[in-house]
Amino acid sequence: MNEDTPLGYPQVSGVDLIFGWAGYEIDCGDGRNAGRVLLGNVIQADSLRKAFRSHLSLCRALPAPSLPRPDLLESPPEPYPAFNCAESIVQWGHGPTINQEVTAFVASYVEKLLAGTCSRMASYFDLDEGTLRCVQTNPTVVVEIVGRHVDAVVPRVRNA
């Protein structure tokens, strides 16, 4: 896994996990000792209509990583040389354990997706600071990202 530059994004974004009827995209990236993992499966805000089934505590759609972070799709002005992980540590100043940390987070997302228990849509971590912030999957966060009203992603429950 080497998503250290914008050039690396298209390689990583090709990872699609087929989960039910939807393919999920996992974006992962890292710097010297910090990184992120982002999860999503739709690239248009309108596809999030009624994404949450509150009475079942289920979510069927999340914004693809490129919706909240369109910069992930930008191409670099010139090609970067290809490095293996060891060369990347030397060339780009990566810490010796950041790639393992990112890999462990991605594996955790995959495990939880396959089990149907994934309750987060993003994780940000910094090994130097010792911090971890996970963004839970919920309608409030999703509507913030796509600029919609919560009624657009959660269907109203009608009393019989």
Provide structural commentary:
With 160 residues, the chain is α+β, with helices and mostly antiparallel strands. The chain has one domain (8-152). Helices cover 25% and strands 23% of the residues. The protein has helices at 8-13, 85-92, 98-115, 139-146; strands at 16-19, 22-30, 34-40, 52-53, 58-59, 120-126, 131-136. A five-stranded antiparallel beta sheet has the order 1-2-3-6-7. Strands 4-5 form a two-stranded antiparallel ribbon. A hairpin with a 4-residue loop joins β6 and β7. It is elongated, with a radius of gyration of 17 Å. The relative contact order is 0.21. Residues 1-21 have low confidence and may be disordered.
Concise account of the structure shown:
With 160 residues, the chain is α+β, with helices and mostly antiparallel strands. Helix content is 25%, strand content 23%.
Element layout with pairings:
Elements: H1 8-13, E1 16-19, E2 22-30, E3 34-40, E4 52-53, E5 58-59, H2 85-92, H3 98-115, E6 120-126, E7 131-136, H4 139-146
Antiparallel strand pairs: 1-2, 2-3, 3-6, 4-5, 6-7
